[in-house]
Design a protein that fits this description.
seven-stranded mixed β-sheet; globular; alpha/beta
Length: 209
């Protein structure tokens, strides 16, 4: 666990491809999708919160602070990242924030450790995860000192996570694909559609308890 790093799970999406509603509350195995993400990320950080709008009571079972977007209007993942940065700065002694999407049940259990190591000698830099040659901007480690720059960036009405990252010093951290039996699993596999959920169920059986 990195006590000086806070974490936030980004669950503020509209889930249109799943028919709307809270994708993270869908059942995967015998528990909600969100539980799988929390179980993997919580041990890696000193404090953990959930980025989600609307009635926070629906996430009560997770036992996490539920943070609504710090900016008005649906501004996507960047709004959740900004909210997390401001929450961590005001409520923790942490110096950085790790972010993860709430629909990725197989995220690496060494995500935060490896991101932090990559920027250990590059203070102020953002560390971003990648796999299979593809960057995953919502899986990153963000210095808390970037929160003012990010707020101004959002006010300019630019909502792309990659666009903000590209304005700052960034380190890409490659994570290997996972092999379980005959399955090769991208650790950042995310659930967007009902067929994706069916694939995740099969992969979960492959991984086992």
């Amino acid at each position: 666990m990195s006590q000086d790093i806070a974490g936030i799970i980004l669950a503020g999406g509209l889930s249109r491809r799943m028919g709307g509603g809270d994708k993270t509350l869908l059942a995967l195995g015998e528990r909600p999708l969100l539980d799988h993400v929390v179980a993997r990320l919580a041990p890696q950080v000193g404090s953990l919160a959930l980025s989600a709008n609307g009635d926070p009571a629906r996430f009560a079972a997770a036992g996490l602070p539920v943070l609504a977007d710090a900016v008005e209007g649906y501004a996507g993942p960047l709004a959740g990242i900004l909210t997390g940065l401001e929450w961590a700065a005001a409520n923790t002694a942490c110096t950085a924030l790790a972010t993860a999407a709430g629909d990725t049940p197989f995220l690496p259990v060494d995500l935060v450790e490896r991101l932090a190591a990559a920027v250990d000698e590059r203070p102020g830099s953002i560390a971003v995860a990648s796999s299979g040659g593809r960057r995953h901007p919502t899986f990153a480690l963000w210095p808390l000192g970037l929160r003012e720059a990010l707020r101004h960036f959002l006010i300019e009405d630019n909502r792309r996570v990659s666009a903000f990252i590209e304005r700052h010093d960034c380190v890409k951290v490659a994570f290997p694909l996972l092999t379980h039996g005959s399955d090769e699993i991208d650790p950042f596999f995310n659930i967007n559609t009902p067929p994706d959920l069916a694939v995740a169920e099969r992969l979960l059986q492959s991984i086992g308890p």
